[in-house]
Specification:
The complex is a heterodimer of chains A (about 375) and B (about 325). Chain A is built from 14 helices and four strands. Chain A is mostly helical and about 375 residues long. Chain B has about 325 residues and is of the alpha/beta class. In chain B, the strands form three sheets. Chain B has a six-stranded mixed β-sheet, sandwiched between helices. In chain B, strands 2-1-4-5 form a four-stranded antiparallel β-sheet. The longest helix of chain B is centred in the middle third of the chain and has 16 residues. Chain B is globular and about 70 Å long. The chains are: A mainly alpha (about 375), B alpha/beta (about 325). Chains A and B meet through helix 1 and helix 8 of A and helix 4 of B.
Chain lengths: ~375, ~325
């Protein structure tokens, strides 16, 4: 191994990267955009309020008070609809996913129940909803929960069963704090996988490797400089993602020694996989297609964007054979739940995978033209 | 004088197979120190395979190849420091400038005192030092490739199809650089399918066809020994003329410019051919009769026309 040669190769790789604006965007700016977009969407999800359209057909002081009570719950922002309008037609015309209609006689029934003690006095609200809207069911659940609370209050008796929620984590975490480790794992994966594929397949196809094979550079120098290059990019991307997450969302994440461990394992695992793919698919285009075939299932099925537990059973089993799952979970164990034992277990799995894949990658990578 | 001083390249019974394909078939030749040796052949003749074996890029199936007195299969690490290579269709890192490319290769060779500015001046790229590789024209890329091949001040320079794909002006610019190298006394191993290139630059030429060397000598001697005849060239001739000429007992050959060449053995052959063409109603734009050049010698020896491969030859030929 010749450090001068490794250094020269590293400098050329970094200059090429810096001058390729598209590469800078996709490797650094793209994950930052993902963080900003998803972070904003899911920011303060627990305290999220919904838009609710209410039609008050009763038009009494009691019905107005009810609307005010719903609004004061902070779960809904109320917009009222004129009583003369058809609620169903209004929802269709204005593409609303849910309209609550308070029926005529609400106050009368309320008085019968509250003042006269008539237990049979009740009222039925009409909820007009769009079943094709996924948000409608969430909104209905929130509304049912609120109405159940009002019913309970009106009964005048304290609830018999209460629940006390206790998180398994030491403190309350938000979605963004679960999301950031996944984005770090995914960014390092794509950067390493495509970096290895581009360097090895594209330069071979262009004939640069053929020229290099007539110079003193060795296979070890070549692979080491590429690994260092990918590691520098991975560290850079991780730092930028963390800085943006702290600055924009004030995330609360534990940064400990596990972070560089998982980043290194992520780099080795996917650079190794990239080197193997380059050997199997010799053309740059087919190697990139093969890399995509590996990357997309991992991006969407290994728990980067949403928890694996949300998936059907067979997909959960599939997720557990994907290497990125162990990087995702390992980073979350170290940065979110600070569970060192779990982090060690995940690191062991991805470590074994990285070692096997990287050794296979080393065996298949050559600067010689003979194997082409 | 030692053997190495006499012969920097010694190839003995070299054979290379790619599966069933016999790319190089038992060839032997030597290259002397300080000479420009041209390997001349059509696409697929075995030129690049041979040169890549000598350059240590490929391994021979059988035979011996010694470069600078060393076995190329055993001394790659020592040899790469002493040779310079311009591979076919030279390419480099797209976003690295001319100067940075030369500095990069200089570092790979561990050369502390490479005269980068001198190399840039040699290949006449002074105006392009800050230009990225991707922005260079084909001719400029080839000139940079030649400069890269010289960063380690090599004893032997291998240039594989240095002017393929270049326009005539760019080709002549590269020739000028190669002439400068020749005048500096470098040993140059040149593979080409351009006859005029070999005739203009080479001290000796080996003609290779279907993996076999079929003739080897200086261009002048090759012409002299293979050309005790004259050549009639009919320019932009109609296709049917070829059949007419064949019917009266001559063997016309099309060259790559849509011209027809006919070998003349006797003084009255021209009259015979022109009369037959006139009688057959075929037309042509012009004609000339002269001594053959290297191209005609090549055509006569190989029976192959030389064609430009726009994509360049890649890999095993």
């Amino acid at each position: 191994m010749n450090l001068r040669v490794v250094g020269a190769n590293l400098v050329v790789s970094l200059k090429s990267f810096y001058r390729e604006k598209t590469a800078v965007f996709f490797r650094i700016a793209f994950p930052v955009l993902l963080i900003l977009v998803f972070g904003t969407i899911f920011m303060d999800q627990d305290d999220r309020s919904f838009d609710l359209y209410v039609q008050d057909l009763d038009q009494t002081k009691s019905s107005a008070q009810l609307v005010e009570t719903i609004e004061l719950s902070d779960r809904f922002k109320i917009t009222t609809i004129a009583p003369a309008t058809s609620a169903t037609q209004y929802a269709k015309d204005h593409k609303l996913n849910l309209v609550l209609s308070i029926p005529e006689g609400f106050e009368k029934s309320l008085m019968q129940r509250m003042a006269l003690g008539d237990p049979d006095a009740s009222v039925t609200f009409t909820v007009v909803y769009d079943p094709s809207s996924s948000a409608a069911s969430t909104k209905m659940q929130a509304l049912d929960s609120l109405l159940a609370g009002i019913n309970q209050e009106m009964s005048g008796k304290p609830p018999f069963i209460r629940s006390d929620k206790t998180s398994i984590l030491a403190k309350k975490y938000r979605f963004i704090e679960f999301f950031v480790p996944g984005i770090i794992a995914m960014t390092v994966m794509t950067s390493s996988l495509f970096g290895a594929v581009n360097v090895n397949a594209e330069l071979r196809q262009k004939g640069v490797i053929r020229k290099l094979s007539t110079t003193p550079i060795t296979r070890t120098d070549w692979i080491l400089s590429n690994i260092l290059y990918q590691f520098i990019l991975a560290v850079l991307a991780t730092m930028v993602i963390l800085l943006v997450s702290y600055a924009a969302f004030h995330v609360s994440l534990q940064i400990n020694a596990w972070l560089p461990v998982f980043v290194v394992l992520d780099v080795f695992a996917f650079v190794g996989l990239g080197m193997i793919l380059t050997r199997v698919a010799k053309e740059a285009e087919s190697a990139a297609a093969a890399a995509n075939a590996f990357m997309f299932p991992m991006m969407f099925l290994s728990g980067t964007f949403f928890p694996v537990e949300m998936m059907p059973g067979f997909l959960q089993k599939f997720a557990r054979i994907l290497p990125l799952y162990y990087v995702n979970e390992g980073l979350r164990a170290s940065m979110v739940s600070v569970d060192h034992v779990a982090a060690l277990e995940y690191a062991a799995v991805i470590g074994v995978f990285a070692a096997v894949v990287f050794v296979l990658g080393l065996m298949t990578t050559t600067l010689s033209e003979e194997a082409t | 004088m030692t053997r190495e001083a006499e012969h920097v390249i010694e190839v003995e019974n070299l054979t290379k197979r790619y599966g069933e394909l016999l790319a190089v078939n038992d060839i032997s030749f030597t290259v002397r120190k300080g000479e420009v040796f041209a390997f001349l052949g059509a696409n697929g003749a075995g030129k690049t395979t041979t040169v890549e074996i000598i350059e240590t890029i490929r391994t021979p199936t059988s035979g011996k190849v010694r470069l600078l007195g060393m076995d190329v299969t055993k001394k790659k690490r020592d040899l790469v420091h002493r040779i310079g290579v311009l591979p076919q269709g030279f390419s480099s890192f797209d976003r690295i400038t001319v100067r940075e490319t030369l500095q990069y290769y200089s570092r790979l060779f561990g050369c502390r005192h490479t005269d980068v500015a001198g190399l840039i001046a040699l290949v006449d790229l002074k105006d392009k030092t800050q230009e990225q590789f991707k922005n260079l024209s084909g001719g400029l890329k080839q000139r940079l490739g030649i400069a890269v091949a010289l960063v380690n001040d090599p004893e032997v320079v291998f240039l594989d199809e240095p002017t393929t794909g270049l326009d005539p002006r760019a080709r002549r610019e590269v020739w000028k650089v190669l002439l400068d190298l020749k005048n500096k006394g470098k040993t140059i191993f040149l593979t080409t399918h351009y006859m005029e290139e070999a005739e203009f630059l080479a001290d000796r030429v080996a003609i290779i066809s279907k993996g076999k060397i079929i003739a080897m000598d200086s261009p002048g001697k090759l012409i002299e020994s293979n050309a005790n005849y004259m050549v009639l060239t009919l320019q932009s001739v109609e296709k049917k003329a070829s059949e007419i000429i064949r019917k009266i007992g001559f063997e016309p050959v099309h060259d790559n410019h849509w011209n027809l060449k006919v070998r003349l053995e006797r003084a009255d052959d021209v009259q015979k051919i022109l009369s037959a063409i006139q009688a057959g109603g075929a037309t042509f734009i012009g004609l000339d009769v002269r001594k053959p050049n290297l191209e005609e010698v090549f055509l006569r020896l190989t029976g192959e026309a030389l064609h430009e491969d726009p994509a360049g030859e890649r890999g095993a030929e």
